[in-house]
UniProtKB/TrEMBL annotation:
Gene3D superfamilies for the chain: Zn peptidases
GO MF annotation list: metalloexopeptidase activity
PROSITE patterns documented for this protein: EF_HAND_1, PROKAR_LIPOPROTEIN
InterPro entries found in the cross-reference section: EF_Hand_1_Ca_BS, M28_fam, Peptidase_M28
Any single Pfam family the record assigns to this protein: Peptidase_M28
Domain Peptidase M28: 107-317
BP-aspect Gene Ontology terms: proteolysis
Protein name: Peptidase M28
Amino acid sequence: MRKLIVLLTISVSVFYSCNSQSNTILSDNVLDYAQTITSSELKEALYTYASDDFEGRKTGEPGQKKAVEFLKEHYISMGIPSPISEGDYFQDIPESFFSNGIKASENVVAYIKGSEKPNEVIIISAHLDHIGISSDGQINNGADDDGSGTVAILEIAKAFKAAVDDGHRPKRSVLFLHVTGEELGLYGSRYYTEVDPIFPLENTVADLNIDMIGRVDAKHENDRNYIYLIGSDKLSTELHTISETVNKTYFNLELDYTYNDENDPNRFYYRSDHYNFAKNNIPVIFYFNGTHADYHKPTDTPDKIQYDLLETRARLVFCTAWELANRDKRIVVDK
């Protein structure tokens, strides 16, 4: 028994030592707010966002304009302001920035201002566009790509607002960034990072990018409690450790790093909006469920989304963002 007590004492000491060094603030109330993210609300939003009315959300086209209005109205209804100016949620991107005849478009932005370090920002991003209407007239609804990421951000924003309303404003600011033009060349995130960063890039702590988190790929059909993570260890050891700790503490999903391999032939690290932040030495995590047979097809519809999984994955992103926003010190870029 004495030997067991000694071992337990050592274990507890090591735990608190590691906890002190990593400066984590994980607590029960973060899970309370995470639980405001619900499968029913995700489903309701996605059935509208990925409906035929939005005509596949092709950049610059009428359906994409409906999509940005949908997002704007959600933020207004939640009482979450824009960082640009009151009531102006659109970061306008002129036609001259695009190529191949792509029409002018816009990113959608909203934010929660930090209480102690408002000039430091955590970005949560997803692309709002999809590939539009096929030559045969079929609408590509893009429910998973990236309707799932888009509605996840709305629910994550709602969770942060619930915390604010209860007097728990995050220490750092959190920017909810819906970028346009991803499918045509990562235009929206490139415009944000190269032309008009609303928050200076040197003050940007991390980007958590969500692109397809509502489905299961063939590899995981028999064990669907997973998510692919890409980029978490590329620039910051600390970010990777925080991500792992949050998951193990609350969710225990399988974090699959298959596509994080430098030799991955798919090169997914370079193919979504987080990359434009990583290019600027900003730590990133790309959350991804992998591809499936409906990828970039009219059959990517909201009835095929697994909403319980979407809920859990969105909660994971929220808790990770919460931790990053509330640490005493910003994470360090050490790679």
